[in-house]
C-alpha cells in the first residue's frame, strides 16, 4: 500500500461475502460451495466467519487434489515415455505429500534425493524421465530455485551471472544417479526401474574436459559443507529414509544439494515458491515468468516478496500457513471492479485480476451444478476431474479449457486465456446439454419438487453463482415459471444460460 500511495493509485474496495465465498472456495479447494454451504455462510453474522471458512477449507480432502494438481503439472512426465504405472505412482506420491501436509522443504528434499523402484517410490520417477545430470539440473534449478540455467549449458550470457562452469558444477550433484532395469522403450515403456546412487560418476566441462565436482550456485557453500559433515539430527531420526539426509551426504551429492537448497541462507528457495503461490492466487506473480528470478527480471514488489518469503521460512515452509496469510489479507479481497485510478494497473494488485477457471475446476463445477458426474475413462463413476492422474484420460472438455498436452516436457505452465473455442464448446456441447437435461439432474429435481419459483431461483443462483439472486433476478425467474405447463424445460434453459455466462466461467 505504500507503493500504491507513491504511484497515486487508489485500490478497489473489499469484496462482499458472496464474492469472497466463491473466490476462496475456487482458490483453496478447486470447487464451488454447495447451496447449503453458501446459504450458511451468507446468512451468518459472525465477525470471524471468513477466517473460520479458510481454516475449514484447508482441512478438506479437496484441498489435496486441487493443490497436488499444480505440482502434477510441473512434474508429471509423458506416461508413454516413462510408463503408465510409474506415472500413477508419481501422482499418488505427490498427493500423499499434500495429504500429510509435508512441509515444502521436506517435499523438495524427498524428491531431489529420491531413490528406489519407480513402482514403489513414485518420487524416483523424476530420475526415470530425466536421464542425464544436465537434464535434471535444468529442471531442479528452475522449479526449486527459480533459476533458469538452460542458456548457461552452452555459453555464459554477458548480462547474467551464471557461467558454463556454474552449470556443470551444479549438474555434478546428479552425476552418481544410476539406474537398473528395463530402461525406456517409448511409446510403450512399462518396465520397472531402480534408481540408486553409484560410487562412480562424473561431469566434465564440455570445452576444457575438466572433471567438475558439485558446487552450489552461490555463496551458501559453507552450509552445504556443514550438512555433509554433520550428524543426523533428532528431527530427521524419526523421519523417512529420504529425510535422513545428513548421514549419507558423502555417498550421495544430492543430499548436500537438498540441505543447501532448503537452508536459511538460500533466499531463492522460499521466494520462488511464494512467487508461484502468489501468482496462482492473485493472477500474476511478483516476477513473471514465475520461475525466472534474476537481476534483469526484477520483482514488481520486492519488499512484499521478501516479507512473504520470510514468513514462509519462519512457518517451517508450511504451505497452509502461507495460503491462509495471503487469502485473509486485504489485497486478496480487492474487488475486480476498477476505479478511475487503477483501471490500467496490471502490476500492483490494486484490484483483483479476473481470470478463467482452471479446466478441472470448471469441469467439476459443471458436475456440481448439474448434479451429474463426469464420465472419465478408466476412473470410478464418481471421480472428479481434479482426481485425473494422467493427461491420457480422454476429455474434450479438459483439452478445450487448457490442460497441458501430454507430449510436453514438464514443467508445464498453463495459459489462462479464454478462447472462442471454449465459448463455442459451452454453447454447443451435446454432452453438457445432455447433463443439464438428464433425468437425474438438478434441473429435473427442482422442477419436479414442490418448491416455489422464488425457492428455485435461490437454489439456482446459490448453486451456479454462489450468491442469492437480486430482487429483479428473482422476479424474472418467477415470471418465467409462472403458469407454465413444462416447468422443467424452463429450469433447464435457465441453467444452460447461467452456465454459459461469464459469472460462472470467470474467477471474479
Structure description:
The chain is mostly helical. The protein has 26 helices and seven strands. It has helices at residues 2-7, 17-29, 35-43, 49-58, 61-75, 79-82, 84-99, 104-112, 125-129, 133-145, 164-171, 221-229, 234-237, 253-261, 267-282, 302-314, 319-327, 359-370, 396-400, 420-428, 430-436, 442-447, 453-465, 471-481, 487-499, 502-505, and strands at 116-117, 177-181, 193-197, 203-204, 211-212, 355-356, 506-507. The protein has a three-stranded antiparallel β-sheet. It is globular, with a radius of gyration of 25 Å. The protein starts with a helix and ends with a strand. Residues 221-248 have low confidence and may be disordered.
Write a brief caption for the model:
This protein is mainly alpha-helical and 508 residues long. Helix content is 49%, strand content 4%.
Largest sheet: 3 strands, antiparallel
Helicity level, as a percent range? 40-55%
**DSSP strand count:** 7
Q: What value does the average pLDDT take?
A: 91
Rg computed from alpha carbons, rounded to a whole number of angstroms: 25 Å
Query: What class do helices, strands and sheet pairing give?
Result: mainly alpha
N- and C-termini, Cα separation:
22 Å
Strand content: under 5%
**Spatial strand order of the main sheet:** 1-3-2
Quaternary assembly: single chain
Question: Which stretches of 5+ consecutive residues score pLDDT under 50?
Answer: 221-248
Q: How many helices does DSSP assign?
A: 26
Shape: globular
